[in-house]
Amino acid sequence: MATLDINGKVVDVEAAPDTPLLWVLRDHLGMTGTKFGCGMALCGACTVHLDGVPTRSCITPLAALAGKKITTIEGVNGKVAEAVQAAWDHIDVPQCGYCQSGQVLAATALLTKNPKPSDADIDTAMSGNLCRCGTYQRIRAAIHDAAKSLEA
Ligand code: FES
Ligand code: FES
Description:
CATH architecture of the largest domain: Orthogonal Bundle
Mean pLDDT: 97
Radius of gyration: 15 Å
Shape: globular
Number of domains: 2
Helix content: 25-40%
Strand order of the largest sheet: 2-1-5-3-4
Number of strands: 5
Largest sheet: 5 strands, mixed
Bound molecules: FE2/S2 (inorganic) cluster
Low-confidence stretches: none
């Protein structure tokens, strides 16, 4: 049994220590906002925050989570996350939507660290989050939009 802190709630999970966090979230806890894409840390669809740091949940085992604060798309909140989600709506970023929870978590972490990112900063921070629908231009525009609203 492992005790996890997910979105500010303490949750007990009965799973093997090598179970990836992605499957703990989706299969054990029914939290399906975090997506499976590649299972190999290559696409970013499974991105969550561990202590605020964007992390690939598909390769992060349960055993590595003791004492960490896990934040998923279902629970991410605060000023920056709200600005990102408002900008995503405003710019109408998603197409199929599959990659978008990972994109939102990555963008929130970027703007928390760097409130006024350049295009190059955005490309570097977001390069591990793939979008098969090619929404990259709208993602970049939405990050700038969120940065502007946070500045105001
Ligand atoms: S599913 Fe984790 S990086 Fe692709
Ligand atoms: S919106 Fe379809 S994969 Fe990104």
